[in-house]
C-alpha cells in the first residue's frame, strides 16, 4: 500500500517535471544568449496542438513530437526576427507570442477536443533497474521523452560550459560587443539559441498532449510557460539546476493528488504559482552573486552604439 | 600569418549625421614601427581605427595591405589580415576567465574545453612579451592594467601583426604604462607594427617612431618622433589655438570666520568591508585649494563620496560653513553649499538618456527659478542650460540633445557649469580632468581656480601630480585611508611627495 503510494507519487512527480525541464532548458539557452522569450506559454500551446494533431493523423507519437518541436521553433523564429533583427522590445514581443500561440492553438485544436489518442509512446524499461522494488517502476519504466529530457539536460550543460559553442553563446549574452569584436555573429548565435529554445518549449507542449494528459484541451498548458520562466531564474541559468527546479515544481504539482481529500483543491491548484512567486522573491535577493542574469539579457545589440 | 610590411589608408572619409568625423585622411604604417595617432578628443582618431578594424565602413577611401587593395567588412576580416585592436573600453566578458576570453574568436581552438587549451598559449605569450596574467583568473577580479594585458594577449594570440592601441594608458598607473611600453618595444623588435592612439604628448614622444596628428577629422601633419618638439605638436593638435595654462589668482584675504569645511575623525567603509578612510581630520579655508594626491585605491573615492553624502560615514563629523552636516543627505549637503564633481561622470554626473537641458538642472531642479507652481518651467530650464552651453563652449547640437552623446570633455563642462554656479562653499572635485584633452582639462582647471578666487573652498582629488602641484595651496598625500602628510605647496619637492604616495613617508615609517 505505502510502496504503491510512493511509486505513484514519484511517477507523477517525474511526469509533471518533464515538460517543465524541457521548457526551462530551452529558455535557459535563449536567455544565455541575451534574448528574453516570454512566449514560452504560447510556444508550448502550439507544440501541444501540433504534436497531438500530427500524432493523430500519422499514427506515430514520434512524428507528433517532431511536429511539436517544429511548431515551437517556428513561433520562436518570429520572436527572433522581432527582437534580434528588428530590435523590438523583447517583453512586448514575447507576450504577443504567448497570445498568438494560445489563440492559434485554440483555433487549430477545435477538431481534436475530446478525441482519444491511440498513438502513444510505449514505456521503455531499463534492463535490470526497472525490476527494482518501488523505485524501478517509477524511475526506470517510463516514456522515452523523459529519458530524452534528462539526456538533454546533461548534454546542454556540457555544451554550455565545456565547449566552444557554449563559450560563444555565453559571451553573446554577457557582452555582445566583445563577441562582435572577436568576429562572432551576434545575430546568428541569438537566432540559433532562440530557435532551440522554441523547439524545446514545443517539445514541452507536445509532452503534455501526447504523454502527460494525453489528449487535447484548450488552455491545457495552464500557465506552465510562466512557471518555466520563473524556473529559469530559480535555476540561475544553469541546466543542471533546472533538473532540481523541475523536480521541485513537479512535486508541488503532485500535491494536488496527494492531499485532495484533506485540503481545499483551490488552495492546492494555486500552490505552483504561489511557489513560483516565493522562488522569484528569493532569487531576487541573491541576484547580485554568481547566479546573476546574463548581463545583456533583453538588450538588443546595436553595433557601434555608445 | 603573412607579415604586414606596410598598411596604407587612402583618403578615408566617414560621416556621422552629416558631420565628417574623418575627412580625406591618408596614412601609412610600416613593419617594426610605432605610429602614434595624436589628437584631441573628437579629432577622429578612434573612428579612423574603427574603420581599419572593420567596425565602421568608410564612406570613401581605400585600404591597402602590402600594396594590394583590401576590403575589411568586419572585425573577422581584419583579424584574418593580422590587424588587432585593443579598444579603450575593454571588450571582455567579466564573468569568464582570462583563458575563455582569449579563446573567443580564436582559430584552431578545440571544440571541447577551449579555455584549457588556450591557457598554455597565454603563458607562453605572456612570458615572451613580459605581460604576466593568470589564465584561470576570472576577469572581473583583475585590475584595469591586467585587463589591458588580457586584451593585448588576445590580439597577439589571434596573430596580430599590426596592433591598434586606443588610449592604452588612460587606465594605467605610471609603472603599468612603462611595462606596456616595454611590451610594445618587444613587439616592434619582432617586426610587428603598433598604432598608438593618444592625446598625451609625453607618452607619444616616449614610445613612438612617427607621429600623425589629427585635428577635427583631418590629418594636420605627420612628423618623425625623433626631434619632434612639444610646442610644434601642440600647435598641430590645436591648430594654433593658444591654450592658456590655468593659473592661480591671488588668494582671497584670510578671514577669522569658520572654515568652509571641517572634517573630524572621518571613517568610511570601502566596498569590500574594511575602512577605506580611517579617522581623517582636516579643515579647508575659504578660497583655498587643497590637493589630495595619492595612488588610486587609497581611499580617495570613498572620501569624495562621503563628503558628497553618497556614502555613509562610520564615524566622524562634518561641518560645512559652520553648520554640522554629519550624516546629512546629499540634498541637505548641497543646500549647505557642498558641490560634488564626481569621478565617474557618466554614471554619477549626468543621466545619459536625458537632454542637456534636463541635466543642467539635475541637482537644482527644486530651485524656484525652474518651477511654475508644482510644474517645471521648461522655458527657464532651457534658458539656463543654454546659458551654461554658451558660457562653457559646450559642443552640442542643441540643449535638447541627449547628454550621453556628448564627448567626455563636454559632459564635464556641463557638470562643472551646473555644480559651480554661484559661489558654493565647498567644491569636491574628484579627478576632474581625467580623460580630458589638453584644452578641456585647462578649462576645468582655470574654472576651479576662478571659483577659489571668488571664495569657494576646493578639495581637488587627483592622480595627476602635476595638476595637484600646480593648483593647490596645500597638498595632502593620501595613503591607506589617511593623510600621510599635509604640506604647504611652496618649494615642495616632487620626489618627496611621490615617496609619501608610495607609503615611504613619515606616517608609513612606524
Concise synopsis of the structure shown:
The complex is a heterodimer of chains A (306) and B (510). With 306 residues, chain A is mainly α. In chain A, 71% of the residues lie in helices and 1% in strands.
Helix content of chain A: over 70%
Q: SSE string of chain A, helix = H, strand = E?
A: HHHHEHEHHHHHHH
Distance between the termini of chain B: 57 Å
Oligomer: heterodimer
The shape of chain B is globular
**First-last Cα distance of chain A:** 67 Å
Structure in words:
The complex is a heterodimer of chains A (306) and B (510). With 306 residues, chain A is mainly α. Chain A has twelve helices and two strands. A two-stranded antiparallel sheet of chain A has the order 1-2. In chain A, helix 10 (224-234) packs across helix 11 (239-258). The radius of gyration of chain A is 19 Å and the shape is globular. With 510 residues, chain B is of the alpha/beta class. Chain B has two domains: 6-238, 3-Layer(aba) Sandwich (Rossmann fold); 261-346 and 407-509, P-loop containing nucleotide triphosphate hydrolases (Rossmann fold, 3-Layer(aba) Sandwich), CATH 3.40.50.300. Helix content of chain B is 32%, strand content 25%. Chain B contains 17 helices and 22 strands. Chain B has a six-stranded mixed beta sheet, with helices on both faces. In chain B, helix 4 crosses helix 5 (144-157) and helix 14 packs parallel to helix 15. Chain A binds chain B through residues 162-165, 167-168, 170-171, 174-175, 177-184, 290, 295, 303-304, 306, and chain B through 50, 55-56, 74-76, 79, 85, 87, 91-96, 100-101, 103-105, 109-115, 404-405.
Amino acid at each position: 500500500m505505502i510502496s504503491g503510494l510512493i511509486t505513484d507519487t514519484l511517477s507523477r512527480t517525474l511526469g509533471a517535471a518533464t515538460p517543465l525541464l524541457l521548457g526551462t532548458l530551452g529558455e535557459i539557452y535563449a536567455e544565455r544568449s541575451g534574448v528574453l522569450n516570454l512566449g514560452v506559454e504560447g510556444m508550448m500551446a502550439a507544440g501541444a496542438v501540433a504534436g497531438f494533431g500530427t500524432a493523430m493523423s500519422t499514427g506515430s507519437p514520434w512524428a507528433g513530437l517532431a511536429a511539436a518541436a517544429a511548431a515551437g521553433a517556428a513561433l520562436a523564429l518570429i520572436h527572433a526576427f522581432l527582437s534580434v533583427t528588428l530590435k523590438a522590445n523583447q517583453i512586448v514581443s514575447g507576450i504577443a507570442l504567448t497570445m498568438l500561440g494560445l489563440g492559434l492553438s485554440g483555433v487549430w485544436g477545435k477538431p481534436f477536443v475530446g478525441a482519444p489518442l491511440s498513438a502513444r509512446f510505449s514505456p521503455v524499461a531499463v534492463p535490470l533497474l526497472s525490476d527494482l522494488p518501488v523505485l524501478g517502476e517509477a524511475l526506470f519504466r517510463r516514456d522515452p521523452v523523459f529519458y530524452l529530457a534528462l539526456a538533454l539536460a546533461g548534454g546542454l550543460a556540457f555544451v554550455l560550459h565545456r565547449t566552444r559553442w557554449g563559450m560563444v553563446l555565453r559571451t553573446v549574452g554577457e557582452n555582445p560587443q566583445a563577441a562582435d569584436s572577436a568576429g562572432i555573429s551576434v545575430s546568428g548565435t541569438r537566432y540559433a539559441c532562440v530557435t532551440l529554445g522554441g523547439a524545446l518549449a514545443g517539445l514541452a507542449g507536445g509532452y503534455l498532449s501526447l504523454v502527460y494528459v494525453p489528449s487535447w484541451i484548450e488552455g491545457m498548458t495552464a500557465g506552465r510557460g510562466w512557471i518555466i520562466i520563473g524556473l529559469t531564474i530559480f535555476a540561475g541559468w544553469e541546466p543542471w539546476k533546472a533538473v532540481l527546479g523541475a523536480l521541485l515544481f513537479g512535486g508541488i504539482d503532485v500535491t494536488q493528488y496527494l492531499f485532495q481529500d484533506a485540503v481545499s483543491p483551490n488552495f492546492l491548484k494555486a500552490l505552483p504559482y504561489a511557489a513560483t512567486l516565493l522562488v522569484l522573491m528569493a532569487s531576487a535577493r541573491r541576484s547580485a552573486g554568481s547566479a546573476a542574469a546574463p548581463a545583456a539579457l533583453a538588450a538588443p545589440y546595436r553595433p557601434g552604439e555608445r | 600569418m603573412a607579415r604586414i610590411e606596410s598598411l596604407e589608408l587612402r583618403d578615408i572619409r566617414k560621416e556621422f549625421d552629416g558631420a565628417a568625423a574623418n575627412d580625406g585622411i591618408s596614412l601609412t604604417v610600416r613593419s617594426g614601427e610605432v605610429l602614434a595617432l595624436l589628437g584631441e578628443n573628437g579629432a577622429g582618431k578612434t573612428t579612423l581605427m574603427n574603420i581599419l578594424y572593420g567596425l565602421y565602413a568608410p564612406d570613401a577611401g581605400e585600404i591597402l595591405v602590402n600594396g594590394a587593395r583590401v576590403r575589411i567588412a568586419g572585425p573577422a576580416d581584419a583579424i584574418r589580415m593580422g590587424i588587432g585592436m585593443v579598444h579603450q573600453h575593454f571588450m571582455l566578458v567579466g564573468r569568464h576567465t582570462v583563458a575563455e576570453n582569449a579563446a573567443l574568436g580564436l582559430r584552431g581552438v578545440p571544440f571541447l574545453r577551449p579555455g584549457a587549451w588556450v591557457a598554455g598559449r597565454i603563458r607562453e605569450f605572456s612570458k615572451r612579451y613580459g605581460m604576466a596574467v593568470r589564465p584561470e583568473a576570472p576577469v572581473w577580479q583583475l585590475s584595469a592594467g591586467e585587463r589591458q594585458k588580457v586584451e593585448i594577449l588576445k590580439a597577439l594570440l589571434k596573430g596580430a601583426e599590426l596592433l591598434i592601441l586606443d588610449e592604452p594608458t588612460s587606465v594605467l598607473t605610471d609603472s603599468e604604462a612603462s611595462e606596456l611600453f616595454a611590451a610594445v618595444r618587444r613587439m616592434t623588435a619582432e617586426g610587428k607594427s603598433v598604432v598608438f592612439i593618444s592625446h598625451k604628448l609625453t607618452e607619444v614622444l616616449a614610445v613612438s617612431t612617427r607621429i600623425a596628428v589629427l585635428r577635427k577629422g583631418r590629418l594636420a601633419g605627420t612628423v618623425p618622433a625623433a626631434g619632434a618638439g612639444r610646442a610644434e605638436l601642440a600647435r598641430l593638435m590645436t591648430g594654433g589655438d593658444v591654450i592658456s595654462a590655468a593659473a592661480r589668482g591671488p588668494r582671497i584675504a584670510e578671514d577669522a570666520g569658520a572654515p568652509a569645511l571641517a572634517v573630524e575623525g572621518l571613517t568610511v567603509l570601502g566596498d569590500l568591508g574594511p575602512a577605506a578612510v580611517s579617522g581623517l581630520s582636516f579643515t579647508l579655508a575659504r578660497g583655498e585649494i587643497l590637493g589630495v594626491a595619492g595612488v588610486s585605491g587609497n581611499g580617495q573615492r570613498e572620501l569624495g563620496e562621503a563628503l558628497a553624502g553618497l556614502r555613509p560615514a562610520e564615524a566622524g563629523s562634518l561641518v560645512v560653513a559652520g553648520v554640522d552636516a554629519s550624516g546629512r543627505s546629499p540634498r541637505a549637503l548641497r543646500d549647505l553649499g557642498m558641490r560634488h564633481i564626481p569621478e565617474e561622470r557618466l554614471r554619477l554626473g549626468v543621466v545619459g538618456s536625458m537632454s542637456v537641458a534636463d541635466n543642467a538642472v539635475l541637482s537644482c531642479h527644486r530651485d524656484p527659478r525652474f518651477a511654475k507652481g508644482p510644474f517645471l518651467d521648461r522655458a527657464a530650464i532651457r534658458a539656463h542650460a543654454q546659458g551654461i552651453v554658451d558660457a562653457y563652449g559646450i559642443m552640442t547640437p542643441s540643449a535638447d540633445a541627449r547628454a550621453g552623446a556628448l564627448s567626455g570633455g563636454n559632459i564635464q563642462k556641463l557638470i562643472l557649469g551646473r555644480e559651480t554656479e554661484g559661489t558654493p562653499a565647498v567644491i569636491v572635485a574628484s579627478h576632474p580632468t581625467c580623460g580630458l584633452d589638453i584644452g578641456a582639462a585647462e578649462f576645468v582647471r582655470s574654472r576651479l581656480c576662478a571659483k577659489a578666487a571668488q571664495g569657494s573652498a576646493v578639495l581637488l582629488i587627483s592622480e595627476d601630480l602635476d595638476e595637484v602641484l600646480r593648483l593647490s595651496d596645500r597638498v595632502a598625500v593620501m595613503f591607506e585611508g589617511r593623510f600621510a602628510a599635509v604640506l604647504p605647496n611652496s618649494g615642495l619637492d616632487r620626489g618627496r611627495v611621490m615617496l609619501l604616495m608610495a607609503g615611504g613617508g613619515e606616517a608609513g615609517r612606524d
